[in-house]
Amino acid sequence: MWDYSDKVKEHFFQPRNAGVLEGANGVGDVGSISCGDALRLMLKVEPETDIILDAHFQTFGCGSAIASSSALTEMIKGKTLDEALKVSNQDIADYLDGLPPEKMHCSVMGREALQAAVANYRGEEWSDDHEEGALICKCFAIDAVMIEDTIRANNLSSVQDVTNYTKAGGGCSSCHEGIEEILVKVMSERGESFKPGTPSQEEAKPAGMTNLQRIRKIEAVLESVRPQLKRDGGDIELLDVDGKTIYVSMTGACAGCQMEALTLQGIQQKLMEELKEFIKIVPTKAGALSRASCHV
Prior knowledge:
- The chain is α+β, with helices and mostly antiparallel strands.
- The protein has helices spanning 6-13, 63-76, 81-84, 89-95, 104-121, 144-154, 159-166, 176-189, 211-231, 260-275, 288-293, and strands at residues 26-32, 37-46, 51-60, 135-137, 142-143, 234-242, 245-252, 280-283.
- The chain folds into three domains: 6-121, Alpha-Beta Complex (Sufe protein. Chain: A), CATH 3.90.1010.10; 135-189, BFD-like [2Fe-2S]-binding domain (Arc Repressor Mutant, subunit A, Orthogonal Bundle), CATH 1.10.10; 211-293, Fe-S cluster assembly (FSCA) (GMP Synthetase, Chain A, domain 3), CATH 3.30.300.
- The protein is 43% helix and 18% strand.
- The chain has a three-stranded antiparallel β-sheet with strand order 1-2-3. Strands 6-7-8 form a three-stranded mixed β-sheet. A two-stranded antiparallel ribbon has the order 4-5.
- The longest helix has 21 residues, at 211-231.
């Protein structure tokens, strides 16, 4: 597992300002549950002075996302909107005494939520939706503008850096070439040259982990959540592992349950924490994979 600072743990186990903020006049929503992280930031701003009187958050994500959101709300209370907008994602990470490189995207998400909330308060349009043709990472819906801005703001120089800070490239890896092109462009602006070539999927696996060990870790995570599923009359079955895509079958009461998507997202997060890599969990009916292969 990653090494978290005491301050990250503190803000995870005892988050500040979590929950709905009554009377909020600025709200920013970023991310999506389908991508594994979602954050709503709520501000109560004094109109005469533009001072942030209070800030709350609601988030769906890992411990680092909760800690980053908690830290951000503490950092911006008492600041004017313009002062708050000067808070960078690195400032959030520094406030928490650092975040693991693989979790820096959580601080970036907080920074985006702040921009969205301020824009909402000011009656301005703010959107992280990609423009047509600008979508780079389809797995996590990350556009070229966000990647460029993040590379510039954090002085990034590798595809792995970009993945750590934005999640882009952490899924199927098909967007690595596009990320490299953006790195070439941005690094040339600062007088540096980018050396193409990213680790293969095999090289990107945790050091010393064989395919069998990886599958056993996946099975162990599923086994850890199975008692809770069974208490509700359901279960989960591992069907196949294809690179970074894990196919499972939800059975019993879990099959078609209204909470199935949220349950799978929670399991996906546990798997990413354990494997230390971005993966995608796909619900599939038992037998569907073998039937599909017969028609290939």
